[in-house]
């Protein structure tokens, strides 16, 4: 079967990949990608590469394509992943922790996540925030809500 994306490494690229694998200090994902490229350059089948490196054949195909279209460095490195920005910055997190350690409102025996979220909005620390975000931040900081 004739491959649409054929990996042909230069001598410099081959040496760079072998050195990367030999050192073994890179991320496991990067090392696996380097092994895939070296085996693809040797003319191995996708099934053989996938079995040798313990990845899926789709991964091998995707790496071949990425190497041909974008080059060696783009193939070895992770692309930026989408994701939201943190809802609370450092000072806002500190304010939340301090608030959770303070006395709750007079009519309440303790702070609830919703009360903390509402108070953060009321004092202008954030425009909006959910009680779940408050819970996650307090859990991350090992803080009790009082």
Q: What composes the largest sheet?
A: none
Given the C-alpha coordinates, what overall shape results?
Answer: rod-shaped
> Spans with pLDDT under 50 lasting ≥5 residues?
none
SS-derived structural category: mainly alpha
Rg, Å, rounded: 25 Å
Q: Which percent range fits the helix content?
A: 55-70%
**CA-CA gap between termini:** 66 Å
Order of helices and strands: HHHHHHHH
Total number of beta strands: 0
The number of helical elements comes to 8
Give the mean pLDDT: 89
Query: How much beta, percentage-wise?
Result: under 5%
Notes on the protein architecture:
By secondary structure, the protein is an all-alpha fold. The protein has helices at residues 11-23, 28-41, 46-53, 57-70, 72-76, 90-101, 113-122, 131-140. The mean pLDDT is 89.
Write the layout of secondary structure elements.
Blueprint: H1 11-23, H2 28-41, H3 46-53, H4 57-70, H5 72-76, H6 90-101, H7 113-122, H8 131-140
Which keywords apply here?
146 residues; mainly alpha; 8 helices; rod-shaped
Brief overview, please?
With 146 residues, this protein is mostly helical. Helix content is 59%, strand content 0%.
């Amino acid at each position: 079967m004739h491959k649409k994306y054929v990996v042909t490494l230069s001598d410099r690229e081959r040496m760079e990949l072998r050195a990367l694998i030999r050192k073994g200090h890179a991320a496991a994902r990067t090392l696996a990608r380097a092994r895939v490229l070296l085996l693809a350059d040797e003319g191995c089948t996708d099934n053989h590469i996938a079995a040798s490196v313990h990845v899926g054949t789709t991964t091998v195909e995707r790496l071949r394509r990425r190497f041909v279209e974008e080059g060696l460095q783009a193939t070895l490195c992770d692309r930026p992943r989408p994701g939201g920005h943190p809802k609370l910055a450092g000072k806002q997190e500190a304010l939340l922790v301090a608030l959770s350690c303070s006395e709750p409102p007079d009519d309440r025996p303790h702070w609830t996540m919703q009360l903390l979220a509402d108070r953060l909005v009321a004092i202008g620390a954030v425009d909006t925030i959910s009680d779940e975000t408050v819970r996650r931040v307090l859990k991350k900081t090992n803080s009790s809500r009082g």
